[in-house]
Amino acid sequence: MLLTVENIGKTFNLNKATPKKVLSDVSFTLDNKEILVLLGTNGAGKTTTIKSILGLVETDNGKVLFHDRDVKADDFKKIHQESAALLENATNLVDELSLIDNFVYWGLMRGIAKTEALKRGTEILTRFGLTDKKDTPINELSRGMQQSAAICMTLIAHPQLVIMDEPTLGLDINAVNEVIALIKELAQVQEMGIIITTHDLDFAEKIADKVVFITNGTSVKPQTEAWREEYERIASRALH
């Protein structure tokens, strides 16, 4: 198993009088070539969950297993550098740089030599048919193209795990469909595990191999294949 999350919990002590529990007993598994969607409303705990997985937020309890090995927060920070990539709505792009220069910059940030980053970036752009855009500044690309580029850029460090936080936020339907096709191809061809957070039911239905509901900081596994109505009931209760 690529990733196992077991009963992780987190409480933020904003002040001593009112601690805020944001995660409670979140559990799920992910294997290579799988796309897992964490589905929940705004504020449900999705982003805290993924940051906890990567050691960016220290949990109070539970554990994370990577390739069946129990890893602590410090270990997973290293794994984040070497084996995992976090995509937060194309915010890893530098607007003024060209597409290929963004690949080089991202590679340097991951400890990859400039010549190797350029080589890998060129290969990735060729693989996904983006070479005609390689010298175009990011701020001249469409939002859909920017998001596709950001997703492709996570590949430069050859990650085994890619986590995407709301990757279709603000995109039109055509761009969403392009992103769906790209993510599915990455999972199968690159043999990686992908975790996606979203509140978009339609997107989740189109892309997920499996779904985990996140509601009030707790994970809930769907009880049926037709999980849409089940989720809508859970989400409705959480909002009232």
UniProtKB/TrEMBL annotation:
<comment type="similarity">
    <text>Belongs to the ABC transporter superfamily.</text>
</comment>
<dbReference type="GO" id="GO:0016887">
    <property type="term" value="F:ATP hydrolysis activity"/>
</dbReference>
<keyword id="KW-0547">Nucleotide-binding</keyword>
<dbReference type="InterPro" id="IPR003439">
    <property type="entry name" value="ABC_transporter-like_ATP-bd"/>
</dbReference>
<keyword id="KW-0813">Transport</keyword>
<dbReference type="GO" id="GO:0005524">
    <property type="term" value="F:ATP binding"/>
</dbReference>
<feature type="domain" description="ABC transporter">
    <location>
        <begin position="3"/>
        <end position="239"/>
    </location>
</feature>
<dbReference type="InterPro" id="IPR003593">
    <property type="entry name" value="AAA+_ATPase"/>
</dbReference>
<dbReference type="Pfam" id="PF00005">
    <property type="entry name" value="ABC_tran"/>
</dbReference>
<dbReference type="InterPro" id="IPR050763">
    <property type="entry name" value="ABC_transporter_ATP-binding"/>
</dbReference>
<keyword id="KW-0067">ATP-binding</keyword>
<dbReference type="InterPro" id="IPR027417">
    <property type="entry name" value="P-loop_NTPase"/>
</dbReference>
<protein>
    <submittedName>
        <fullName>Drug exporter-1 ABC transporter (DrugE1) family,ATP-binding protein</fullName>
    </submittedName>
</protein>
